[in-house]
Amino acid sequence: MLPLVEIDAAAPRERGRQYGEQARAQIAASVEFYKREFELKSGLGWAEVTRRAPQWVPVIEPFHADALEEVRGIAEGSGFRFEEILALNGRGELRAGNPFAADGCTSFSLTNGAAGDGHVYCGQTWDWRVGTKESIVLLRVVQEPKPTILMQVEAGQIGRHGANSAGIGLNANGLEAQFGFGLGVPAPYIRRRILDSHTMHEALTVVMTVKQALCSNLLFTHRDGYCVDLETTPERHGVLEPVDGMLVHANAFLAHVPPQIEETYRPSSFDSLFRAPRVEQHLRRARETRSTDETRRVIAEALSDHFAYPNSVCTHPDPRDGGRWETVAAVIVDLTAGDYLVSPGNPCEHGFEPLPWNLYA
C-alpha cells in the first residue's frame, strides 16, 4: 500500500504541520523530482520556479484561504520553504511551454443500475511521470465541520482526486491545450475546494465561478446516483452526461473543442482514442454482475486493460520514448458502501486493496 497520512485538526495550519511532518520523506522526493524536471524540460532552475510561485498567492487567498494556510503548515512541518510547497501545488501553472507533456489518466463513473450490485462507483487510473511514484501518499483529511476527505496526491499537494464523506467523488484528467497559462487559481486548490463541499451544488459552483489558468477534465459522481463530466478551460466548459448510467473519460476533448485550438487540435494523448472505449467495453459487463465482489472484479479488469501495451489503460514505461510514463496509482471508490480501494502502481501487478478508512465512518 502507498504511505498513509492522516491529519485531524480544526486549524488549517495545524493540519498542514501534521501533513508535513508525516510526509517529509515523500515531499523531499517530490521536490527533488521537480527540481530536475523543470531544469531539464523547461530550462527553469528551482530558484526561478520558487521566485515565480508566490505570484499565485493573491488569487489563491480569496479563493481558499484555509488551503493556503495548510500550505504554510506543510512547509513548517516538512522543513521546506513556503515557496517550494507553493511550487508543488502549481507545477502545471508554473511551467514554461509544456515540460511535462500530457498525462494519460482514464476516469469512470457507474450510476443508476450500471453496476449490477446497485452501488454507485467512480475511480480512475492515475498515469504520471516515472520517478513520481515515490512521492505519492494517500491522504485522509479530518476537518470539522467540513467533510472528511480521502485522496491520493503527490506529497505536499493539498488536492488532487478522491472522495468525501458527503458522498461526492472527484476524478480528474489532463486536457492539453496551448492557451490560458494566465494568472488563475492552480488546479490543486480548485480540486480541494470541490472536495470540501457538502453538496453537489457547492461543488459545481466552485468550477463554474473560479478563474483558472489551465484546461482540465473533472468527473463528478454522487452516491445518490448523479454524475456529470466537465471539460473545463480558462474560458468555457463543455458538459457530458452519462449514457445508461456510465461515463468514461480520458484526455481528449469530447464535449467541445475550444475555439482557440479548433483549427489545429490533435489530442496530445492520442491513446485517449482507445483507452476510454476499452474501459467502456469492460464496464458494460458490470451491469450483469450480481455481487459486489463480482462488480469490483469487472472494474479492476477494466483498469488493468493492456490493449496497445505498454501505452494502455494500465500504462507501463515504453522504452521507445525513454520510459517516461507509468500508472502510478489506480482507485476504485464504492460511494454506496464508502469503501476506497487502491492499487499502489499498475493494477495488473498489485490488485486493489481497501484503505483502513471508510468514507462514512
Polypeptide structure, described:
The protein has helices spanning 12-22, 24-42, 46-52, 57-63, 65-78, 82-88, 187-195, 200-209, 272-283, 292-303, 347-350, and strands spanning 4-8, 106-110, 121-129, 136-142, 149-154, 161-164, 168-174, 216-222, 227-232, 238-240, 246-249, 325-334, 339-343, 353-354. The chain is an alpha+beta fold and 361 residues long. The protein has one domain: Penicillin V Acylase, Chain A (4-Layer Sandwich). The chain has an 8-stranded mixed beta sheet. Helix 1 runs parallel beside helix 5 (65-78). The chain is globular and about 55 Å long. The two termini are 20 Å apart.
Search tags:
22% strand, 11 helices, alpha+beta, Penicillin V Acylase, Chain A, 8-stranded mixed sheet, 6-stranded antiparallel sheet, 361 residues
Give the SSE layout.
Elements: E1 4-8, H1 12-22, H2 24-42, H3 46-52, H4 57-63, H5 65-78, H6 82-88, E2 106-110, E3 121-129, E4 136-142, E5 149-154, E6 161-164, E7 168-174, H7 187-195, H8 200-209, E8 216-222, E9 227-232, E10 238-240, E11 246-249, H9 272-283, H10 292-303, E12 325-334, E13 339-343, H11 347-350, E14 353-354
Parallel strand pairs: 1-4
Antiparallel strand pairs: 2-3, 2-11, 3-12, 4-5, 5-6, 6-7, 7-8, 8-9, 9-10, 12-13, 13-14
Helix pairs in contact: 1-5, 3-6, 4-5, 5-6, 7-8, 9-10
